[in-house]
Design a protein that fits this description.
mainly beta; 13% helix
């Protein structure tokens, strides 16, 4: 193998990854234009954003036990649920009962598998 082939391979992999990005992920470089008038640059309209929402959740796995702590920094109440996917085919996946994460509060969600845990996530819903 050539001496510099590793660096070339890494550079090519980076180029291919950038080329694979969807066009929405790459910021537009052209200035916005006024519709119907070619060549006239217009103003960007501010993007309308929804009210901030969603508790920040941190999950931890200890053996077959799962814990999630969710803190809600926003004024709207967030209804959170813990979802656990177990690794073994015979082990039953679990979904916790929903808990209301009220503004400026922390809630704790727990669950477990019989054996190994494959995946853990928390879902959010406006209440």
């Amino acid at each position: 193998m050539f001496r510099g082939s590793r660096g070339v391979a890494q550079a090519l992999a980076g180029v291919f990854l950038l080329a694979a990005l969807p066009s929405a992920a790459v910021p537009a470089l052209a200035a916005p234009t006024v519709p119907g008038v070619p060549g006239v640059v217009g103003e960007r309209h501010p993007v309308q954003t929804r009210d901030p929402f969603g508790a920040e959740c941190r999950t931890s796995i200890h053996g077959s036990h799962v814990t999630a702590h969710c803190f809600n920094p926003y004024p709207a109440t967030d209804r959170v649920r813990l979802h656990i996917e177990c690794d073994r085919w015979w082990d039953v996946d679990a979904d916790s009962a929903p808990l209301m994460a009220r503004p400026a509060r922390t809630v704790k969600l727990t669950g477990r598998c019989w054996k190994e845990v494959r995946a853990v996530w928390v879902s959010h819903e406006r209440s």
